[in-house]
Amino acid sequence: MKKILLTFIPLILCSTLLNAQRRHGVVEQLPHFDKQPVHWGYFLGFNQYDFKFAYEENPPGGDVLVDTSLGFNVGLIGNLRINSFLDLRFEPGLYYTRRVLNFQNPGFTESQSVRELNSTYIHLPLLLKVSSKRWGNVRPFLVGGVSTSVNLGSQEKSVDDNSSGVFRMVRGTNYYELGIGIDFYTPTFKFSPSIRGVFALTDEMKPDADPNSPWTGNIEYIQTRGVFINFTFE
């Protein structure tokens, strides 16, 4: 429900502003901003990463529940204008998140059933931004593309695994991304809140050394599902 509300809030705000501008009329701010061949910016925001699990048919262990928390994002923006409605964007950023895995194995003690994952990602998306016609100082847009990331806390090279309390993940992951947002033009800069869904394309788990491990032996793959809320300044 929270994600649905967050998706529709920008659309409601946009509709309200457009109606106000039609009634009263406004002076366009930064009228030539979008005609620049290349421009730069930065973003700040929040994230919530989750996992999708797929299990083997005959699992030696139980399901896994994920406790998620709110993380934060910061990064830079490079924008290449293609035409009046299309832009190619590169948005490298640093994303921090925390997830807790709870293994539902009745034979586990508390220390065996909980694995805390603190991840710092270098996230590298290449996105196509599709903008609508500009109305006054407001311009809605859709954004989508592909991305890759490096998980600095993956533990992929560790010789320890879950038998020693370490849940290992692969260092690199690929994704596709889809989102919506709104450009607001001010006298000095363009401000753009957006919300984006992020979906991993590759398996992110490095299995334990024991193929019958009660932690990873029943898991076919895990993949990230995430929501990003970014506030950009260009």
> How would you state the average pLDDT, rounded?
89
Number of helices: 2
Q: What CATH architecture label applies?
A: Beta Barrel
* Number of domains as seen in the coordinates: 1
The value of Rg in angstroms is: 21 Å
Approximate helicity band: 10-25%
Structural class by sheet pairing and helices? mainly beta
CATH-defined topology: Porin
Overall shape: it is elongated
Instruction: For the record, give the distance between the C-alpha atoms at the N and C termini, rounded to a whole number.
Output: 31 Å
> What's the main sheet like?
10 strands, antiparallel
Number of strands: 10
Series of secondary-structure elements, N-terminal to C-terminal: HEEEEEHEEEEE
Low-confidence stretches: none
InterPro entries: Beta-barrel_OMP_2 (IPR025665)
Domain Outer membrane protein beta-barrel: 36-204
Keywords: Signal
Protein name: Outer membrane protein beta-barrel domain-containing protein
Summarize the structure.
This is Outer membrane protein beta-barrel domain-containing protein. The chain has 234 residues and is mainly β. It has two helices and ten strands.
Mind sketching the topology for me?
Layout lengths: L1 H23 L13 E18 L8 E5 L2 E11 L4 E5 L2 E11 L6 H4 E18 L6 E14 L20 E14 L4 E11 L18 E15 L1
Antiparallel strand pairs: 1-3, 1-10, 2-5, 3-4, 3-5, 4-6, 5-6, 6-7, 7-8, 8-9, 9-10
What does this structure look like?
This protein has one domain (2-233): Porin (Beta Barrel), CATH 2.40.160. The chain has 234 residues and is mainly β. It is 12% helix and 52% strand.
